[in-house]
Every structure is written in C-alpha cells, then in structure tokens.
Amino acid sequence: TATTPAWAKALSWIGIVAVSATWRSLLSFAFSRRRIRTMYARSQRSIERLAGVAFAAFGAKLIVEGMSTR
Question: What's the rounded Cα separation, in Å, for the pair 25 and 20?
C-alpha cells in the first residue's frame, strides 16, 4: 500500500528473491543427481496427474464460488 514504509517493501522484495533463489538452487542440486532424476522419471506421470487433479479441483471451486456470488 501507499503507507507501507520503503524499508518494508525492500525487505519483502529481498525475501522473495532469496526464497526463489534458494528454491531454484535446491532443485538444481537435486536434479543434478542421477538417483533423483531416475526417481522423478519413474513417478513423473503420477505427479503430473495429481497436479492436474489438484488444478482442476481448484478451478472447479473457483467456478462454483463465482457462480454462487452472483
């Protein structure tokens, strides 16, 4: 908001960048390991299906909530 101090905005931005960089570094480190890549390749279809179901459920929830507020 307009009343948020500049230091708080900067600290939030730094935190977001730090968390993002840490997450990407951890992913890079993990997927540089053959065992992790093999495990992921074996379960990739299941993971993608689960994510698809979760996104579809979330989308359905948004649609139902949007229709009920009219």
Answer: 9
pTM score above 0.90: no
Is 31:40 a contact under the CB 8 Å cutoff?
yes
Provide the CB-side half-sphere exposure for 1 (13 A, CA).
2
pLDDT tens per residue across span 3-55: 999 999 999 999 999 999 999 999 999 999 999 999 999 999 999 999 999 99
- CA dist 68 and 64 (Å) reads 6
- Alpha carbons 16 and 22: distance in angstroms, whole number: 10
